[in-house]
Design brief:
With about 170 residues, the chain is mostly helical. It has five helices and four strands. It is globular, with a radius of gyration of 19 Å.
């Protein structure tokens, strides 16, 4: 049986190397959904309470006034499912609206950080099954152009996080 406990949102540490910078529109949509529909999306943390997935949801939840969380301890062998006892998908409008908001906010919130992606790839993280070769080349080009632009604005030497930022393993 899984261990379930109460926690405060402040117990969890956002990922400082999150490759998704997020967007203002996506954040507003997540926050509005949490305010109007309540919580339903899970956040994944590691054994040290570092957020692995759901950084933007955690941020929006805090802004929406949600202070508490239920933590389900798991090792990846079972799917964790949130059962909303106040919803009936075929009788209520809220769950259908939430389904659209969930999918749309994921789409609108995504803003890749090319420097972080290159840093992770440089550290040996294999992303080849997530990005086509041409997409990784475009990400590398975007990071290089941003670095050159920053350098020309300050008149200095370009710097890049793409040289590697080893994560604690």
């Amino acid at each position: 049986m899984a261990k379930i406990q109460q926690a405060k949102l402040t117990d969890f540490v956002p990922d400082a190397q999150n490759a998704n910078r997020g967007t203002e529109r996506g954040q507003r949509m997540i926050e509005d959904s949490l305010k109007e529909d309540g919580a339903a999306r899970s956040v994944v943390v590691d054994k040290n309470n570092n957020v692995v997935a759901g950084n933007k949801t955690l941020e929006a939840a805090a802004r929406a006034g949600i202070d508490n969380a239920l933590v389900v301890e798991a090792d990846g062998d079972q799917l964790v499912i949130t059962k909303r006892t106040d919803w009936d998908l075929y009788e209520d409008e809220a769950p259908r609206r939430y389904a659209y908001r969930d999918n749309r906010s994921g789409e609108l919130s995504l803003d890749w950080d090319p420097d972080q992606i290159l840093a992770d790839v440089g550290d040996g993280l294999d992303l080849s099954n997530l990005f086509a070769d041409n997409e990784l080349a475009e990400i590398e080009e975007e990071a290089l152009l941003a670095s050159e632009l920053a350098s020309s604005l300050v008149g200095g030497t370009p710097t890049s996080r793409g040289e590697g930022t080893k994560r604690n393993k």
